[in-house]
Amino acid sequence: MKKYHKSQPSHKVERIHAPVDGVPQQSKTGEIAFNPEVLPLTGKSRWSQIKKFSPVCRETFRRLSLEGRAPKPERLGVRCTFYDNRELHRWLADPINYRIDQ
Fold first, then answer.
1. What are the per-10-residue average pLDDT scores of the chain (102 residues)?
2. CB atoms within 10 A of CB 70
């Protein structure tokens, strides 16, 4: 019976520079990459992208949204819900005193 030897990858892993204010930074090799750990300033995000930054769980966030104390969801279908990133940044800056502008 032959024994197979698994070799370690010979390529070196390079660090990607984190975006500053949502703007992608160029790495040393010239590649441009986004850091997934940053919530963009504009656009829309789903809960899976927001939960890393949220001080509350999903159900509490949903309840706060219904009370007007967190950003309202925007439904694009039965299973597709997005939140506005500008409103999320406003809420994350001061979650206790946040109120929806009417």
1. 57 47 56 70 93 94 95 93 95 93 71
2. 23
Secondary structure E strands in the chain: 25-26, 32-33, 44-45, 74-75, 81-84
Distance CA 62, CA 73 (A): 9
Pair type for strands 74-75 and 44-45: unpaired
**How confident is the model over 51-75, as pLDDT tens digits?**
999 999 999 999 999 999 999 999 9
The burial class, CB within 10 Å (0-12 / 13-18 / 19+), for 15 is exposed
Per the CB < 8 A criterion, the answer to whether 46 and 81 are in contact is yes
Kindly report whether the global pTM for this prediction surpasses the value 0.70.
no
